[in-house]
Amino acid sequence: MPDYVFKAAAPGGHTESGTITAADMVSAMAALEDRHLTVFDLKDASAATPVGHNWRRPSVTHAARVVLVRELSTLANAGISLADALSTLRDANRETALYGPLGVMVRSIHSGETFSSALEKAALGLPEYVLAMVRAGEATGNLGVALSRAADQMDFDARMRAQTREAMVYPSILIGTGTMAVLFIFAFVVPRFATLLRGRLDTLPWMSVVVLRTGAFFNAYFIESIVAIALLVAGVVAAARNPRLRVRLLASAAHLPVIGEWIHSGETARWTTGLSMLLQSKVGILPALELAASSVRLSTTTAKLRNLRAEVNRGRRLSQAIEHQRLLEPTSLSMVRVGEQSGELGPMLEHVAHYWNDKNQSMQRRVVSLIEPASILCLGAVIGFVMVGVVLAMASLSDVKF
């Protein structure tokens, strides 16, 4: 019978590891459960990868970071020591990009460093607020709760980005297919009419001249046009991945009528959610405000939040400073005042964050509902322009007067 390598948590809170001989993996799992062990990792001993391998691994994704923080929260809440929890997760991630960073964390913990210091040394690319929540959890003895809230905030950030991408999928496809249809009309349909009117362009209406000359250009340089469009799309994608340029484009879009309201609602949802999580994790109000300011993308919102922190530092109440900076509307502001008076500022800010998140989603649906007809209208206008130009050109062959 084959041997299986296992890593499991014992009822006392410590971890056990070793090998077990069983007919198959299901039998091995059942045997371990009979010993009242909670199995975290179980694999065939013959297929186990040596610990010392040094293969090149891909970078750690955001989803993997969220799962790691949530697993650490679960193990911490279960009463398992950090050293055992990290060793368990390291061994369970031998074939993933997390193996190296977890190994760094295990060595740091064994050398006597704090968990927050080990997490920072691992260079996992975690947001700064996660490290702040972990430090606060260490200070208050609620590390599991702090990690859980940090994972919730990371989930929220990922959902915000995913919702934005999903909202733009259909308009992007619509614009892309429409552009290709217009290009096809100009490159292959319009030139057929141009051959019938060769030598008579000077006598045609200006609309027909524009359509026919444009069609002749795309027909003559079709391959070059396709390459140019492909390069343009690649440039737009590259620009969208550039953080600085993306922030500049976002700041410019924030001044537009409907899109600007959508962006501002998303920014408000982001900083209120972060501030609520930090305060409920026992992070001080001043560092929490500084971290909230670093979590937003618009420079104007960042400046207002830093001014807010400065006013609170001078002794002003948070609600008064928010009102002075015009960061929240009256309804949300009244909820902040209630939180100050009741001593439940963190939970009340969480309600405010939920309100703004719902409003952001509503604005997102509104923006998408406007983009779709606007795209169709623009494409229809271009195709209509082409059709009218062609009809006017053909009518000139029989000298029909309009």
Labels describing this entry:
402 residues; mainly alpha; Receptor-associated Protein; 3 domains; three-stranded antiparallel β-sheet; 16 helices; 3 strands; 72% helix; flat
Write the SSE topology:
Elements: E1 3-9, E2 15-21, H1 25-34, E3 38-44, H2 62-77, H3 82-92, H4 99-110, H5 115-121, H6 128-140, H7 143-196, H8 206-220, H9 222-241, H10 243-253, H11 257-280, H12 285-295, H13 299-313, H14 318-325, H15 330-342, H16 345-395
Antiparallel strand pairs: 1-2, 1-3
How many H/I helical runs? Answer: 16
How many angstroms does the end-to-end distance come to? Answer: 93 Å
What topology, given as strand order, has the largest sheet? 2-1-3
Query: Structural class of the secondary elements?
Result: mainly alpha
Radius of gyration: 30 Å
SSE string:
EEHEHHHHHHHHHHHHHHH
Give the beta-strand count: 3
In the residues, how many domains can be counted?
Answer: 3
Give the C-level CATH assignment of the largest domain. Answer: Mainly Alpha
β-sheet strand percentage? 5-15%
Helical content (DSSP H or I, runs of 4+): over 70%
Shape: flat
| CATH homolog superfamily of the largest domain | Type II secretion system (T2SS), domain F
Give me the CATH architecture of the largest domain, please: Up-down Bundle
Q: Which stretches are poorly predicted, pLDDT < 50 over at least 5 residues?
A: 47-57
For the residues shown, what is the average pLDDT? 81
CATH domain topology of the largest domain: Receptor-associated Protein
Largest sheet: 3 strands, antiparallel
